[in-house]
Amino acid sequence: MVMFAGRTVITALVHRRRVKTKSPDRPLLAETIRRVMNTRPRAESQRELAGLVNAALRQQDPAYSVTGTRVRKVGVDSGAVRLEIEYRESANTAVPEVCPVCGNAMAPVMNTTLDGGRTEVKRHCTVCPFTVGQQARVPGRYIFVRAAPREPTAEEVRLRRLRRAGSLLREASRLIGTALDGTTFPQRKEYAQEKIADILSNRQEAGSLPNLIADVRDEGNGDPAWTRPLVSPKNATRKDL
C-alpha cells in the first residue's frame, strides 16, 4: 500500500513536469499585475510579486507561467507598479546602455570639467529609477509599490523605443570598435562608427534619432520643429515668422 501511494505521488510529479506551460501576452500580464497590486499595494521582493502574479494567472489557465524578470519588466514598462531599488556593490564596472531592470534606454548625466570639457558622471534609466555612477553597483532587491492606473501613451511608447534604439546603436558602435581593433583596415571601423554617429546625433539628417524624436513629438502640429529654424523645442507649435 505504501509502495502504491509512493508510485502515485511519483506519477503525479512526473505528469506535472510534462504539462506544457505557456506565457501570457503582454496586455494580459500587465492587467494581472495591476489586479494583484490592487489587492496587495506593496510587494517586498520580486519573488513575492511573481508568486502572486502566477497564482492569479493560473486561476484563468493552469498552464500559465511567467518569470520574475518578465513580471518586473512588464510591470515597470506598463506603469502598473512603481519600483524601489536597493543596491549592492559589484565588481562589474561596465556601464550598461540598456537598463538591466526594465529594458529601456539609459541616459548619461554630463558635467563640465575644470578645463571646459564634458564628462559623464552617471547614467540613469529613462523610465525606472535605476542609476549607475562611478561606484559600481547592481540591484540587490526590488520593492514594488502600487502605482496610479495609467497606460503609457502611444507617443511615450514610440519615444522609449527610439531612445532604446540609440542605446543599442551606441553599444553596436563600441562592439564594432573592439571587433576591428588591431586589423589591417581601421578606416572601415571609422567609417562604420561615423555612420552610427550620424544617426545618433546629426541634426541635419532627416533619419537621425534627434530628428525622429522631434517628428514624434510634433506629430499633428505640421512640420516638425527641426525643419523650422525659427522654432525652439519649447515652442514647437509657434508659427514661423
General description of the model:
This protein has helices at 2-18, 26-39, 46-60, 68-77, 154-180, 186-201, 209-218; strands at residues 42-43, 81-89, 106-112, 118-125, 131-133, 137-146. The protein has 2 domains: 2-94 and 137-146, Arc Repressor Mutant, subunit A, CATH 1.10.10; 154-235. The protein is of the alpha+beta class. The longest helix is centred in the C-terminal third of the chain and has 27 residues, at 154-180. The protein is globular, with a radius of gyration of 24 Å. Strand 4 and strand 5 form a beta hairpin. It has 7 helices and 6 strands. The strands form 2 sheets. Strands 1-6-2 form a 3-stranded antiparallel sheet. A 3-stranded antiparallel sheet has the order 3-4-5. Helix 3 (46-60) packs across helix 4 (68-77), helix 5 runs antiparallel to helix 6 and helix 5 (154-180) packs antiparallel against helix 7.
Oligomer: single chain
Number of strands: 6
The description of the largest β-sheet is: 3 strands, antiparallel
CATH class of the largest domain: Mainly Alpha
In CATH, the topology of the largest domain is named Arc Repressor Mutant, subunit A
Domain module tally: 2
Strand content: 15-25%
**For the residues shown, what is the average pLDDT?**
85
| N-to-C span | 93 Å
Radius of gyration over all CA atoms, rounded: 24 Å
Strand order of the largest sheet: 1-6-2
Q: Output the helix-strand order.
A: HHEHHEEEEEHHH
* Silhouette: globular
Low-pLDDT segments: 1-5
Structural class: alpha+beta
Number of helices: 7
CATH architecture of the largest domain: Orthogonal Bundle
Percent in helix:
40-55%
